[in-house]
DNA sequence: GTTTTTATACTGACTAGTCAGTTCGGAATT
DNA sequence: AATTCCGAACTGACTAGTCAGTATAAAAAC
């Protein structure tokens, strides 16, 4: 499994992911060509098709990979924490993630609300997995009375997810000169205020 | 000015705008072909190029048109109101707008944070105009002490703009069965809580 | 009030170019 | 020896933009 060959191949796939993420975040899926992706990854075009069935499949696996990481970080962040603190930890984890994988976040934001695309179903599913972690936390908070009882769990969870994404990416794109810690503070402030019973 | 010819032409342009908005909202700018737009508008492809210089220019004029409407509604909404009420009026105006032009809102959300696109500069400028109205209101509120003094005007304004957009579109795409009034209420609730000094 | 002219609006086949995906012999890596 | 990658040529479907020609309002001439 981790012999030289598989490692080498994993490395190529990783380089293709990185190249694809950067380009698609900038230009969108359709405007990004497979030739571009191969060139930026420093790889021949044939290699792309040796490693991935198609451009669409490459993108889908990319989404799976990226959101999988995010979901894992969400799970790790809330582990064992009481609801209110878990909520803060989620915001921090999301921003930490966006800071690290800004291009992927930008890509997510741009492709998340699309309809009528081949991979839309995949994206919807993955989004659900990430939000489920948030929803569990919110539900626990509402059940235990630490969060307002009138809070609608599903709405609040997806709103939280989307708002973190939009505020952080907005900052990165339109005010990149500012430290992202400020986003974190103001977002935490907002969430805390809203979470007050 | 309003003879048969100009009216007919205006009508054609309007139909092209509507067709383009719907398709681009669903598929994105690059994935939408000029043939598609023409077909949906019930017009020959040549007509698109008779009325607009290029696909990009059509899109830019569409953005100008759409955001111009939004900015005008913002201006009308805050007119003469004291800061706190003006803030609520802005939220309501934005949601009212999104309810009416949902495809345009979806399109905005998807294309807003792109970089390296020909029309990116235009979009950035237009976004600035809309946010300026929000910023004026927030600034007046901070100056008069009705809003927290530690509120950063620029950040708060763009956050408000983005959050309204993302929450509303998220709702439209992922929970369209719910009445949008509920979004308005919960958004207003959030803004009110955050605005508390 | 009818006919002729003109300007405007539209048409759709056509061109020139692009891009996803294929193919495959050979080179490099393990 | 087997796997992985290279690279370059090729195909076929698709797409932005063009342009010569048509239709039709309104204005001009009769």
From TrEMBL, chains A, B:
<dbReference type="GO" id="GO:0003700">
    <property type="term" value="F:DNA-binding transcription factor activity"/>
</dbReference>
<dbReference type="InterPro" id="IPR001647">
    <property type="entry name" value="HTH_TetR"/>
</dbReference>
<keyword id="KW-0238">DNA-binding</keyword>
<protein>
    <submittedName>
        <fullName>TetR/AcrR family transcriptional regulator</fullName>
    </submittedName>
</protein>
<dbReference type="InterPro" id="IPR009057">
    <property type="entry name" value="Homeodomain-like_sf"/>
</dbReference>
<keyword id="KW-0805">Transcription regulation</keyword>
<dbReference type="InterPro" id="IPR041490">
    <property type="entry name" value="KstR2_TetR_C"/>
</dbReference>
<dbReference type="InterPro" id="IPR036271">
    <property type="entry name" value="Tet_transcr_reg_TetR-rel_C_sf"/>
</dbReference>
<feature type="domain" description="HTH tetR-type">
    <location>
        <begin position="10"/>
        <end position="70"/>
    </location>
</feature>
<dbReference type="Pfam" id="PF17932">
    <property type="entry name" value="TetR_C_24"/>
</dbReference>
<dbReference type="InterPro" id="IPR050109">
    <property type="entry name" value="HTH-type_TetR-like_transc_reg"/>
</dbReference>
<dbReference type="GO" id="GO:0000976">
    <property type="term" value="F:transcription cis-regulatory region binding"/>
</dbReference>
<dbReference type="Pfam" id="PF00440">
    <property type="entry name" value="TetR_N"/>
</dbReference>
<keyword id="KW-0804">Transcription</keyword>
<feature type="DNA-binding region" description="H-T-H motif">
    <location>
        <begin position="33"/>
        <end position="52"/>
    </location>
</feature>
